[in-house]
Amino acid sequence: MTNNPNVVISESKSSINMAITVTVSNSSIFQATAQKPPAGPSSTTGGGYISISRSTKLVQQPDGRARIKTWVDSMRASSPSRIKPTPSLSDHDHDNNSSWMLHHPSALDMFDQIIDASKGKQIVMFLDYDGTLSPIVDDPDRAFMSDAMRKTVKTVARSFPTAIVSGRRRDKVYGFVRLGELYYAGSHGMDIKGPTKDSNYKKCTQSVLFQPASEFLPMIDQVYKELVEKTKSTPGAKVENNKFCLSVHYRCVEEKKWSELAQQVKSVLKDFPQLRLTQGRKVLEIRPTIKWDKGKALEFLLESLGFNNCSDVFPVYIGDDRTDEDAFKIIRERGQGFGILVSKFPKETSASYSLREPSEVMNFLQRLAEWKKRSILPLPGQCQM
């Protein structure tokens, strides 16, 4: 049992006998400004590919056209899919792509090497949802995963502890996945809950519940209502309430309207310095200014599983979004496991490997499950917390 005064053990009458509820309103994770961004990869990774800085924070500053232009430029930079394919690549483009693939080779091509590195260790799977398990679609409410993908994830979860880590609200992503044996980390890791169904890796009768930004809920709800009202004049804009964070989707907004949308968002957020604005793929993300992200969620889940200080753990994180870079960076810093970026376009990343699209993710997961089924190696012992 933990000695952390912020951890409360409470009884539950559900199928989960105990729940660990963590409240951190007085914790040092809260700060007045956004956390320092991670450093980018070395310039030796080759130039010329799409440079999308993971660290870009759309900081709220006094009104000004220059600031709005910066926002719009950043919105364009975070949308590599707007680049139209050409019948043939120029020599320069081919060299850039080859250079990027040299440093971030296909996880399918390198599958045997990944397995060799994991031998004797416990693999723990972390999966983003949108763009990783499901295709990116115009309507975020229709980002359904296929039955084949669901079956594949279910099979993987039988062999390895598996978590879904998404910017979506936890109950919404659970509604898409519908697998009770998984861990779910919604709102970019600010809403974490353990399995609700028997799992080979569920710790006894305990279930984890972690919500480090609970005190921001009234503010998030207020900003959500204001953003819905403010952006309704922009055709195609959609504001999504992810409980502990908000998403302003502009995938269906004409590019000439992006500046108008950025101004609308800015006009609302200027009164809420406790919130920060970042961006993903065709989406603006509004989150509390706390030291918490998908990388922190990965560390928390590893600790909950008893692997925090273990040398025999092998985390594998697969994601397609800029927010997944925080998890890729943590994995690199730990020197354990690998990050896998899902992208058809070369872009700056701390991931070690790449996959092009969800169909390749499913292929990789299927091969992983098949390898585990064939493996005769016993599971390594699990460290004790």
TrEMBL record:
One of its GO terms (molecular function) is trehalose-phosphatase activity. Pfam families: Trehalose_PPase. It is an enzyme of class 3 (hydrolase). Keywords: Hydrolase, Stress response. GO terms for biological process: trehalose biosynthetic process. Its cofactor is a divalent metal cation. Its EC number is 3.1.3.12. Coiled coil: none annotated. InterPro entries: HAD-like_sf, HAD-SF_hydro_IIB, HAD_sf, OTSB-like, Trehalose_PPase. It catalyses: alpha,alpha-trehalose 6-phosphate + H2O = alpha,alpha-trehalose + phosphate. Residues 74-97 are annotated as: Disordered. Pathway: Glycan biosynthesis; trehalose biosynthesis. Removes the phosphate from trehalose 6-phosphate to produce free trehalose. Trehalose accumulation in plant may improve abiotic stress tolerance. NCBIfam families: HAD-SF-IIB (TIGR01484), T6PP (TIGR00685). Belongs to the trehalose phosphatase family. This is Trehalose 6-phosphate phosphatase. It comes from Cucumis sativus (Cucumber).
